[in-house]
Amino acid sequence: MQQRINGAKRVAAPVIGSQSCAPLLQHQVLLGVDPSLRGTGYGIIRLARPHPQALAFGTIRCPATWEHSRCLLRITEALRDVLRQYQPTVCIVEGLFYAQNLQTALTMGEARGASLVAVAEAGLEIYEIAPRKVKQAIVGYGAAQKVAVAKMVQRLLRLGRLPEADAADALALALAHAQQNARYSLSAPKRI
Hints:
Strand content: 15-25%
Number of helices: 7
């Protein structure tokens, strides 16, 4: 108090000391991955002003006639190529969902594992976001249809064409992570 009376200048201190926007500033190129055995979506965005830019997106396709092991290798190799070309610093993968069919859950887990191997080899930080939270962040409705997500992603990234569903989901993951880290968040993203 005596310092204030004597005219000392006050210095503003952050209200929340431990939370900051550092992850957003630290990661400028983000990779989103929507794993699936027959169609793994990926999307790379660069954080920029006035809006994020899509650097690349697509779907890693595997024909139904291929064995699981061949599909898993294809997913890993394709993601390695994408990682080498665009050099993202963080990956956001779709969180696990509860499947009614055990075989479907196992197959999805295998595809997710193949994706995570490629990303972990590159040394990226990996986060996951639940599908409903991504839809909520992008569309504003947690049970939105895939088409609504794709249209909103197209609009947010100013894409000339509507991305395929799996690629749109991957881009939405990256956008949701960027949005989540652009402001103070009470719950930190789940790092895996």
